[in-house]
């Protein structure tokens, strides 16, 4: 089976590579020539464990190809997946420019039946616009060629994306025809031989499912962060509360971990887009607006703790940050809590020493670009360290922001000797407070 995937970002590249791994002939398409040239050379634009080896293996096997020209390979494929970006507009809605451009290109160049499957996260009703765009281009050409559109939202977790794709807990597909259903079934069957779990539904429901899933997970996180903040005020322990409610089978234990806020390319953008969709339809999603409000506050919670500890006197303090990416096992800095924290620290006159095992190059670009505009100075007081111990040198306080594995069991003796102060603020609740106090640290976590 021959397919094309348009967009070689996180979703497109992972999806295309995994399809190729299962024997499908895949051509990945992107308008970014530099990115395509790099992929042909084996240079991967994102960090995802296991992805580079899989890309190289399937390119060598001639199952995975890269091009900038969709129109040149369009009539050699049966299915086209659209995995292009849907950046957030100023009002929170998703920008469909790239999605509709893919549809336009297909309508302008198709010579035979094609199934266009939207994998990008798009607002409810996008499939109708896509269908109208293709049909409009066919009408301009004065020809009648059959086609279908479908929705196949992705549920990949960054850092575990390959495992999620190769062994999915479910595959959600919205279709309008039996032909489209048959093609999707054939394509996904190798992944689901042991337990065939493709959930077919109408397209509108499939589009809504993606947003609703991410909104629910974001809600659980913000709810638990809200409870954690209350726990601190009343003297309860949020870790005990989490265990107590997580063993209730109606609730379950996933996404109930308190912390310093969620980030990434999905939750923040999708919550905003769903709120915007509701507003456009005359309905207010009050719960999700509260979820956003709690998360915005939670990204500042470590700064507030630090400010309280030093009685507001943060100027010239040296503060260490362990972890910059929004979560472990990725270099994704989009909406990362560390960005908000660093901004607050620099504005307060702190010297920041930061380290992340993978995200440093991306962090440097984003932080320097963003902070230079916000803080009017030629030189930002931030140092990107060589390792975790270099990061804590002469530090007044250590703040854990991202729970990378290498941060879990450091040599605390070395850390304590290297630091000037003794404060450790654990933004992910991964350390034992009794152990930390025995070593001689002043330790605080979330909740």
Q: Can you tell me about this structure?
A:
By secondary structure, this protein is of the alpha/beta class. It has three domains: 200 residues, Rossmann fold; 86 residues, NAD(P)-binding Rossmann-like Domain (Rossmann fold, 3-Layer(aba) Sandwich); 146 residues, Rossmann fold (3-Layer(aba) Sandwich), CATH 3.40.50. 45% of the residues lie in helices and 13% in strands. The chain is built from 18 helices and 14 strands. The protein has a six-stranded parallel beta sheet, sandwiched between helices. Strand 10, helix 15 and strand 11 form a beta-alpha-beta unit. Helix 9 packs across helix 12. The longest helix is centred in the middle third of the chain and has 32 residues. The chain starts with a strand and ends with a strand. The mean pLDDT is 93.
Secondary structure elements and pairings:
Blueprint: E1 2-6, H1 10-21, E2 25-29, H2 33-40, H3 51-60, E3 64-67, H4 70-73, E4 79-82, H5 97-109, E5 114-118, H6 126-141, E6 147-151, H7 161-166, E7 171-174, H8 178-188, E8 198-201, H9 203-234, H10 238-246, H11 267-280, H12 286-298, H13 301-309, E9 318-322, H14 337-347, E10 351-355, H15 360-374, E11 382-384, H16 388-391, E12 397-400, H17 412-418, E13 423-426, H18 433-439, E14 442-444
Parallel strand pairs: 1-2, 1-4, 2-3, 4-5, 5-6, 7-8, 9-10, 9-12, 10-11, 12-13, 13-14
Helix pairs in contact: 1-3, 5-6, 9-11, 9-12, 11-12, 14-15
């Amino acid at each position: 089976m021959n397919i094309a995937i348009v967009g070689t970002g996180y979703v497109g590249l992972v999806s295309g590579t995994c399809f190729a791994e299962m024997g499908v002939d895949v051509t990945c398409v992107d308008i970014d020539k530099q990115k395509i040239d790099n992929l042909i050379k084996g240079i991967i634009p994102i960090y995802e464990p296991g992805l580079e080896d899989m890309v190289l293996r399937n390119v060598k096997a001639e199952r995975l190809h890269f091009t900038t020209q969709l129109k040149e390979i369009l009539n050699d494929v049966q299915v086209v997946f659209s995995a292009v970006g849907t950046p957030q507009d100023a009002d929170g809605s998703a920008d469909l420019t790239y999605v509709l451009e893919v549809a336009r290109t297909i309508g302008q160049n198709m010579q035979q039946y094609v199934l266009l499957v939207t994998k990008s996260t798009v607002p409810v009703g996008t499939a109708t616009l896509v269908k109208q765009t293709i049909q409009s281009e066919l009408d301009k050409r004065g020809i009648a060629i059959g086609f279908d559109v479908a929705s196949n939202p992705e549920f990949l977790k960054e850092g575990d994306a390959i495992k999620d794709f190769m062994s999915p807990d479910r595959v959600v597909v919205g279709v309008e025809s039996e032909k489209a259903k048959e093609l999707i079934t054939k394509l996904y069957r190798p992944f689901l031989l042991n337990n065939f779990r493709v959930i077919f539904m109408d397209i509108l429901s499939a589009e809504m499912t993606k947003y609703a899933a991410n909104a629910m997970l974001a809600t659980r996180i913000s709810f638990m962060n809200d409870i954690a903040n209350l726990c601190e005020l009343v003297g309860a322990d949020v870790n005990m509360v989490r265990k107590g409610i997580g063993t209730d089978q109606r609730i379950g234990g996933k996404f109930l971990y308190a912390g310093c806020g969620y980030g990434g390319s999905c939750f923040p953008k999708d919550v905003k887009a769903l709120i915007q969709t509701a507003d456009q339809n005359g309905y207010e999603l009050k719960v999700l607006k509260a979820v956003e409000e709690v998360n915005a506050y939670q990204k500042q919670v470590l700064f507030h703790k630090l400010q309280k500890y030093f009685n507001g006197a943060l100027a010239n303090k040296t503060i260490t940050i362990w972890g910059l990416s929004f979560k472990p096992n990725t270099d994704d800095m989009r909406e990362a809590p560390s960005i908000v924290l660093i901004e607050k620290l620099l504005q307060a006159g702190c010297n920041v020493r930061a380290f992340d095992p993978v995200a440093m190059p991306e962090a440097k670009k984003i932080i320097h670009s963003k902070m230079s505009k916000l803080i009017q100075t030629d030189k930002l007081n931030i140092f990107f360290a060589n390792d975790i111990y270099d990061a804590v040198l002469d530090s007044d306080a250590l703040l854990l922001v991202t729970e990378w594995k290498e941060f879990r069991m450091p040599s605390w003796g070395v850390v304590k000797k290297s630091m000037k102060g003794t404060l450790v603020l654990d933004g992910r609740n991964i350390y034992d407070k009794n152990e930390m106090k025995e070593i001689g640290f002043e330790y605080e976590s979330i909740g």
